[in-house]
Amino acid sequence: MQIIALTAALLTLAGLAQQVFGALLAEQFCKNLRASPSQLPGVSVLKPLYGTEALTELALESFFLLDYPVYQLVFGVQSKNDPVLAVLSNLRARYPKQDIAVMVNDAEHGRNRKVSNLINMKPLAKHEVIVISDADVHVPPYYLNAILAAFEEPDVGLVTTIYTGLPANPSLAAQLGVAQLNYNFLPGALLARRLGRQDCMGVTMAIRAGVLEKIGGLEALANYLADDQVLGRLVLAAGQKIALAPVIPATTVPEQDFASLFQHELRWARTIRALVPVAYLGTIFQMPLLLAALAMAFSVLSIWSVLLFVGALGVRAMTAWRIEAALGLPKRQNIWLFLLRDFFSTLIYIASFTGNRVDWHGQPMVADSGRVDFGRKSE
Question: Which residues of 208-222 are buried (b: 16+ CB within 10 A; e: fewer)?
C-alpha cells in the first residue's frame, strides 16, 4: 500500500508540474497575440450550420465584425426548414454590406454530415484562402489577421487555433465544461505543441485551396468523425506544417445538465483515445486531485499525503488564476469546482475505456483503430 501511495504521490507531482508549465505557456502565448500579416489576400470563411443553440447569433455575429479588408462568409445548411436560417436573415439585414453566400443542400457525400455540408458549400467560396470554423465559435476582430500572419511562416500548409470555453448559462454543468477547456485543454494543447505535436483543431481549419486540392479535397474527410485531425495528418503527410495562429477564439459551452455534458466529453475522450492512444493515457496527469486522493487513501491519511492534497488544491487554484488573468477572463475558479471537475474527469476517463461508441448530434458512430471511421462496426 505504501508503494502505491508513493507512486500516486509522484504522479501527482508530475501532474502539478505539467499544470504549472502549461499555465506559463498560456501566459507566454497570450503576450504575442494580434500579429499583423504583410499581405492581406481575400478569404472565404466557411461556416457549416445545423440548428441553433444558446449564443448562436452572438457567435455568428462575431464573424460579421472582423477587421479585415476582403472576406466572404459562406454558410451552409442541409434543410430549408433549419431554424438557423432565420438567424442568418437577421444578421444579413443588420449587416447588408457584408459579402455573404448561403447554400441549402441536403446531398450527402459520406458519413460525416458536417463535411458533406462543407463539400456542398465549397463551390460558393471565391477566394484562395479558406477558413473553416464551427457555428459555435466566437472570434475577436483581428481573427483573420492572425491566421494570415501564421501562414507567412515557412512551409505552413494549415493554420489552426487553440480556444477557450464560454458558458451559455449559469449551470454547474456549463461551468464544469468551461473549466475543462480553460484549465485542462488549453494549457495541455500548448504543452503538446511545445513537445512537438502539430494537431489541427476544428475550431479553426485554415488552408489554401491549392493545398486542399492536393491532399484530396474535403472529400478525403467525408467518412471520419475527427475531420480536423484527419485534415492535419494529410497536410503533414504532404510535407507541410500546421501553424498555431496568435489568436484565441472561444467556443460556446451550452450544456445545462450533467448527462449532456457527460455525452459530449465522452465523445471527445473516446475520439482522442482512438486517434492518439499513448498520448491519451497521459491525460491522467490532468487530474492531480484524483492522484493525490489515492495517495491519501493508500497511506491511510498520513500527514504528508494530506499536505500533498492541500498543496495540489493550491497549485490547481494558482494555475487556473494565472490562466484566467492571461486570457483576461472573469474569475470563475474555486476549490469545490476543481474537486468536482477532477471527479467528473475521472468518470469520463474510466468510461472512455469501456467502449468505442460515440454520439454526435444523435448520430451513432464508432471510434476505433487509431482513427474514427463511421463505416466500421464496434468490436
Answer: beebbeebeebebbb
Instruction: Say if residue 16's pLDDT is above 90.
Output: yes
Cβ neighbour number for residue 181 with a 10 Å cutoff: 18
Q: What are the residue boundaries of the structural domains of the chain, listed by start?
A: 2-27+260-354, 35-255
Q: Judge contact between 156 and 232, C-beta under 8 A.
A: no
Taking the CB of residue 83, how many other CB atoms lie within 10 A of it?
12
Write down the residue that cell numbers 491525460 correspond to. 283
- 304-341 tens-digit pLDDT: 999 999 999 999 889 999 999 999 887 766 778 888 88
Q: What is the DSSP string of 204-254?
A: -EEEEHHHHHHTT-GGGGTT-S-HHHHHHHHHHHTT-EEEEPS---EEEE-
Helix (H, G, I), strand (E, B) or coil at 31: coil
CA–CA dist 228, 215 (Å, integer): 14
Sorting pLDDT into bands at 50, 70 and 90, what band is 355?
A: confident
State the pairing for strand pair 241-244/156-160. parallel
Architecture of domain 35-255 in this structure: Alpha-Beta Complex (3.90)
The helix (H) or strand (E) run that includes residue 130 is strand 129-132
Q: Is the pLDDT of residue 344 over 50?
A: yes
Give the pTM.
Answer: 0.89
Amino acid at 256: Q
Nearest residue to 225 (alpha-carbon basis) of 10, 372, 30:
372
Q: With 0-12 CB in 10 A as exposed, 13-18 as middle and 19+ as buried, what is 59?
A: buried
